[in-house]
Amino acid sequence: MDMQSKAKKLIEMIQTAPVEWKPLGEIAEVSAGNSAPQNSAFFENGIYPFCRTSDVGRVHHSINFYQIQDKLNDIGIKGLRLFKKETILLPKSGASTLLNHRVMLTIDSYVSSHLATIYRNEKIVLAKYLFYFLSQFDVNELIPDKSYPSLKVTEIAKIKIPIPPLETQKKIVKILDKFTELEATLEATLEAELALRKRQYRYYRDFLLDFDNQIGGG
């Protein structure tokens, strides 16, 4: 069975799957990073990643994010919170807030206060499932004044997330992972084929995660 056939079969399956919609804050810890150390000495011979909004902006969208330029040393990390790998990051202040950047850490990292952090309750939701769903959410809906873009952590925590059983989440993630892998592979090949695969990925991502229209969630 090819991937598209599997995706269609999965669509049929989730049409009858029980789904409960929950605020993000009930299924994950939603917070923000640390104030950036201002003393350049804290970055000398650093080994601990300190993620800034600019790092996220360079990548824009990645489920395997590790490309962090600045590194803190032992003195620089004192008093700062370390965020675990599989933490989802998105800008919450400044112009980049409007650009829907979204990444998920594959390494533990310290994080700038300009980034919102989301770490799931593993008993309720898979990290990748949550990332894929949040990837299709337009945060511009939460920004009242586009002239001074900013997001409140409390507003991010109100985003409604459809929660099917973990087994259904795993199947959804497996399909979307395949499309993500294909997209990465094709980046080094034909642009036309890549554009087609991107359209396929967006179609199946949006369809697989559109519980509203499929089963009347709310």
Notes on the protein architecture:
- With about 220 residues, this protein is of the alpha+beta class.
- Helices cover about 35% and strands about 20% of the residues.
- The chain has eight helices and eleven strands.
- The strands form three sheets. The chain has a five-stranded mixed beta sheet with strand order 2-10-7-8-4, sandwiched between helices.
- Helix 1 runs antiparallel to helix 6 (about 165-185).
- The protein starts with a helix and ends with a helix.
Q: Could you tell me how far the N terminus lies from the C terminus, measured between alpha carbons in angstroms?
A: 33 Å
Q: Uncertain runs with pLDDT below 50, 5 residues or more?
A: none
Major sheet: size, sense and barrel closure?
5 strands, mixed
Task: List the helices and strands in order.
Answer: HEHEEHEEEEEEEHHEHHH
Number of alpha- plus pi-helical segments:
8
The tally of strands reads 11
Helix content: 25-40%
Instruction: Give me the secondary-structure category.
Output: alpha+beta
Basic shape: globular
* DSSP strand content: 15-25%
* Mean pLDDT over all positions: 87
Compute the CA-based radius of gyration: 18 Å
Short description:
By secondary structure, the chain is an alpha+beta fold. The chain has helices at about 5-15, 25, 55-60, 125-135, 155, 165-185, 190-210, 210-215, and strands at about 20-25, 30, 50, 60-65, 70, 80-85, 90, 100-105, 110, 115-120, 160-165. Helices cover about 35% and strands about 20% of the residues.
